[in-house]
Amino acid sequence: MKNISILGSTGSVGTQALNVIAANPDLYRILALTAHANANLLIEQALKFKPSMVVVTDESKYQTVKDALAGTDIKVLAGEAALCEAAVLEGVDLVLTAIVGSVGLRPTIAAIKAKKDIALANKETLVVAGDLITELAKENGVKIIPVDSEHSAIFQCLVGEAGHSIEKIYLTASGGPFRGKDISFLKGVTKAEALKHPNWVMGAKITIDSASLMNKGLEVIEAKWLFDLEADQIDVIVHPQSIIHSLVQFHDGSMKAQMGVPDMNLPIHYALAYPDRISSDFKRFNFVDYPELNFFKPDLKTFRNLDLAYTALRKGGNMACIINAANEVVVEAFLQDKIGFIEMSDVIEACMEGIEFVEKPSLNNYLETDSHTRIFASQLVTKKNF
Ligand SMILES: NC(=O)C1=CN([C@@H]2O[C@H](COP(=O)(O)OP(=O)(O)OC[C@H]3O[C@@H](n4cnc5c(N)ncnc54)[C@H](OP(=O)(O)O)[C@@H]3O)[C@@H](O)[C@H]2O)C=CC1
Ligand SMILES: CC(=O)[C@@H](O)[C@H](O)COP(=O)(O)O
Ligand SMILES: [Mn+2]
């Protein structure tokens, strides 16, 4: 029996993980669940899975959750700091980080220090402080098992390949809803259009990131830390069908790919079960449904975010933390109709130039960079000055 804490149980990854867990009650037990503002769903999940603890980070929702769970043994906590309590809870074997954004950093660090294995969906944590996280995981003998579909693909391709060096990896990108479009088209796109991902149903933030190719930029940085690679060893290839989830090319020239229908249940199921594989009834891939699989070079001139992410990766230090924080601000601003699609990249680039560079950041430097960048980016958005 694996005891699991899910940070972000009310989101797209969190709810799918709970479905996987509900289908395998002999294998998994939920000990903690967390949500931000969706009190009703958190209450429903708590009554169904009976964890020992729930956390609602939006403190205004505390009383609602507390009252609804009053007749149970479930401890109810509120506020961001309480995420760390859900991450370190005694008896938890695996923490699924399914929160969105850099708010995942502190509870992930707490979980690793408490020697909990991590099923990592929250890619922003590795983008912000991948050096600290991977070092801490090594020191504490903690496994970081990727949930992100591309990284799960690479991880699966590497099973049994210890000691065989990777020449390079290819992360596949769907290209998003605006694949093939030019800058003049992108200037006029709406959030409703950007939220229509061609292949995956996901939370709003990652869906906008997919449309702007920032998701692939964040994933390039995530891959650097998960698989200990240099920027030149990580390539992105646009593959509109999202059937091949990513590929590894070894030093003998041989390539391994992992494929399947685009369904997050698969990588979630794999990460929870690792190192086992557990039977599932998820939809199977059928070759005749896909007579063609296509591959293209990404257009880095139009979709500048991917280029900016490579620049940040090559520069090192706190630069990836800067682009992550700036991106979180601009995605929120775009979703609130405060800036246009193309302007998101303008603000991110201005932050990369305007925020102080730190070559060897400490955790405090990362936290400061994150908050300074958010303030700087928000001012740029408000003043429309970028
Ligand atoms: N969705 C997907 O298919 C994939 C997602 N990922 C990554 O997984 C992570 C989660 O994505 P996704 O599930 O789509 O996101 P969602 O927006 O669907 O869910 C986010 C979750 O985080 C909670 N949350 C939001 N803001 C805060 C906050 N400030 N403090 C604490 N908790 C918060 C939400 O709570 P509430 O609902 O109460 O607001 C919700 O439970 C992201 O990092 C994403 O990049 C990676 C690969 C695929
Ligand atoms: C399901 C998943 O892992 C997402 O990160 C997905 O890959 C997004 O698709 P894009 O390839 O469009 O960014
Ligand atoms: Mn992905």
From TrEMBL:
Single annotated GO MF: manganese ion binding
Protein's pathway: Isoprenoid biosynthesis; isopentenyl diphosphate biosynthesis via DXP pathway; isopentenyl diphosphate from 1-deoxy-D-xylulose 5-phosphate: step 1/6
Q: What EC number is given for this enzyme?
A: 1.1.1.267
Domain 1-deoxy-D-xylulose 5-phosphate reductoisomerase C-terminal: residue ranges: 144-227
Sites binding Mn(2+) sit at 148, 150, 219
Reactions mediated catalytically:
2-C-methyl-D-erythritol 4-phosphate + NADP(+) = 1-deoxy-D-xylulose 5-phosphate + NADPH + H(+)
Q: Supply the InterPro entries for this chain.
A: DXP_reductoisomerase, DXP_reductoisomerase_C, DXP_reductoisomerase_N, DXPR_C, DXPR_C_sf, NAD(P)-bd_dom_sf
Known cofactor(s):
Mg(2+); Mn(2+)
Ligand binding (1-deoxy-D-xylulose 5-phosphate): 123, 149-150, 174, 197, 210, 215-216, 219
Residues of the DXP reductoisomerase C-terminal domain? 259-374
Q: Which ranges carry the 1-deoxy-D-xylulose 5-phosphate reductoisomerase N-terminal domain?
A: 4-130
Its family remark reads: Belongs to the DXR family.
Matching PANTHER family: 1-DEOXY-D-XYLULOSE 5-PHOSPHATE REDUCTOISOMERASE, 1-DEOXY-D-XYLULOSE 5-PHOSPHATE REDUCTOISOMERASE, CHLOROPLASTIC
Q: What is the designated name of this protein?
A: 1-deoxy-D-xylulose 5-phosphate reductoisomerase
